[in-house]
Amino acid sequence: MNIAIIPARGGSKRIPRKNIKPFHGKPIIAYSIEAAKRSNCFDKIIVSTDDQEIADIAIKYGAEVPFIRPLEIADDHSTTTAVIQHALTWCESAQWQIDNVCCIYPTAPFLLSEDIQQGLEKLSQPDVEYAFSATAFSFPIQRAIALSEEGSVSMFSPEHANTRSQDLQQGYHDAGQFYWGKKSAFLLGKAIFATHSKAIILPRKRVQDIDTFEDWEFAEHLFSLL
């Protein structure tokens, strides 16, 4: 059995009620649920939440909410891994025979069903524990600079101060959309960003982290363009 777990707590601080805030006509979590449904990869799509309003909206758009998340893993310090492990423990107690899990974030309106399908394909390869979405940095990470408290500048990698851009290795970062994993990998808390993982590379135009109101506004404009 393959399941999707969408972690969506109710207490978002920087953007209140972020996980169900309207985004181009519907709650933003609806995009994640709908992409999961269109992928045809899952036997179950469940939302882990501590909030009844979020639960009701998730059910309306086709997800299941078989449990309410305990408050001790629904605060600012709760990790995604802890939330997934809790959900998997509940599923095992319900005797669900799970093989693979996909954690899908609730604020991922650019997620496509094809991306999810590619992730499952990569997870099926030998010795792969996780498959997740990533995208390229737009600027060479070797040229990143740091600012001291006084405002003075230093390079993170001064050895590359004079290296041509075309000679620098491309850097990538987590796209923050989904994380496929073997059930055992999540339960054991294995690191995602490691050699046993594969990345599904997304174009930068379909990646936008949404943590602030400025991020939200940018994502709405980008969505309109796409």
What labels describe this entry?
globular, 6 helices, Spore Coat Polysaccharide Biosynthesis Protein SpsA, Chain A, 6-stranded mixed sheet, single chain, 226 residues, alpha/beta
Task: Summarize the helices and strands and which ones pair or pack.
Layout: E1 2-7, E2 22-23, E3 26-27, H1 29-39, E4 44-48, H2 52-60, H3 80-93, E5 100-104, H4 113-123, E6 130-136, E7 145-147, E8 153-155, E9 172-182, H5 183-188, E10 197-201, H6 213-225
Helix pairs in contact: 1-4
Task: Describe the overall structure.
With 226 residues, this protein is an alpha/beta fold. The chain has one domain (2-133, 173-225): Spore Coat Polysaccharide Biosynthesis Protein SpsA, Chain A, CATH 3.90.550. Helices cover 28% and strands 22% of the residues. It has 6 helices and 10 strands, in the order E-E-E-H-E-H-H-E-H-E-E-E-E-H-E-H. It has helices at residues 29-39, 52-60, 80-93, 113-123, 183-188, 213-225, and strands at 2-7, 22-23, 26-27, 44-48, 100-104, 130-136, 145-147, 153-155, 172-182, 197-201. The strands form 3 sheets. It has a 6-stranded mixed beta sheet, with helices on both faces. A hairpin with a 5-residue loop joins strand 7 (145-147) and strand 8. Helix 1 (29-39) packs across helix 4. The longest helix is centred in the middle third of the chain and has 14 residues, at 80-93. It is globular. The two termini are 34 Å apart. The mean pLDDT is 96.
